[in-house]
Amino acid sequence: MKDDKATLDRYGIYVGAKLKLVGVQENGKKDKEMTPTEQQEHKSIQRIDHIVQKTSDQLLERMQNYVANAQLFKKQFLDSSSETYQAMMQASPDDFMGIRNSEKQNLHKDYVFITETLMQSLLSIDNVPLDDGADLGRNRRKQAVKQLQGWMDQMDKVRQSVEYNDESGNKSEGSDEGEMQNKL
Q1: Topology classification of domain 36-167
Q2: What pTM, to 2 d.p., does this model score?
């Protein structure tokens, strides 16, 4: 880039674009001049990043859908003041309960798939070998674990809100699933 102060937009680089960077690293070493320990740590960091990216690609949309479906389930099947709830209960309570149970099972299946995939990813990250002096690798692993555990905590909160509302029969006023949807 000739003009260091120009924005990336000026060069046709947009959000989500993939870039290939060529040059010398900041510390002045080229990739080929890395010590074997540094190369191993770099490979480990790349492996951790690959696991997180793969998990994100696989689950992000599914987690967003799970949160949205849980909100819809609570509104349609647990909020006795909603029009849908009242209309279905008046028309056929048995059919309503059958549909409700079926939808709850679908939510549970999604939850199980998401949490099992997150657990598998956490185990994969834990299995990435790191040498004793690999501080950058350990920090990256710690960040990745925090991110995946954060997603798992969000899914647990959504599930608990559905379970709580189903058991109590009350609509949760303090629900923060909309906030969770934005975090994903």
Answers
A1: Methane Monooxygenase Hydroxylase; Chain G, domain 1 (1.20.58)
A2: 0.70
